[in-house]
Description:
This protein is an alpha+beta fold.
Amino acid sequence: MKIATYNVNGVNGRLSVLLRWLQESQPDVVCLQELKAPQEKFPIEEINTAGYNAIWQGQKQWNGVAILAKGMEIQEIGRGLPGDPEDLQSRYVEAIVNGVVIVCLYLPNGNPAPGPKFDYKLKWFERLHARAASLLAHKAPVILIGDFNVMPTELDVYKPERWVNDALFREEVRAAFHKLVSQGWTDAIRKLYPEEKIYTFWDYFRDAYGRNAGLRIDHFLLSPELSGQLKSGGVDRHVRGWEKTSDHAPVWITLEP
């Protein structure tokens, strides 16, 4: 099973890019983030025509997450990260696809830090810790997938010294990510490429893509039931070079029983 994640940075404005990549890559399951579309504006007809079923949690202007599955049923478990009923941001959806619990998430950016947005990010992380521990307790195959807005180590960021005070790289955020992984999750891409510089995001400014001045912020965390099934993975880096594309590139892994 080929599973991918893609922060599409506006699903309608970049629909042609998404559809082109789906046709080229043929993933079985896709998690999308940053739909930037209200619930009723998600392009479900075009997604269906491309061969995919979908569930999504939209939000006007910002955020939004979706799970796509090629020719497979998507059994929704829930939407919205538990722990704060007043949190109305569309950042989290869970479903079962082909016997695997798929968690699609879009963790808050947190900038500027310190400040209220950074506090929200850390609290969101705490809620994610609780939910992730609950999922692990079921001993079911689970994957946490999406844009975590965290570079876990210096290997995951171009010129890390320039990012020490950024909310994506601050010590508190990296500690929160490592605390999550230490529950028993496997960082799939880093397991496959333990020493390589691999980026999933390149800013639109200062020719970041051309200079390969990137960040690795899109991740797959595998539960112990799946870590042994990981066979391959990578970044479709060339998609970042397409016209009118997202500032993220799609990332994918393959699992084999």
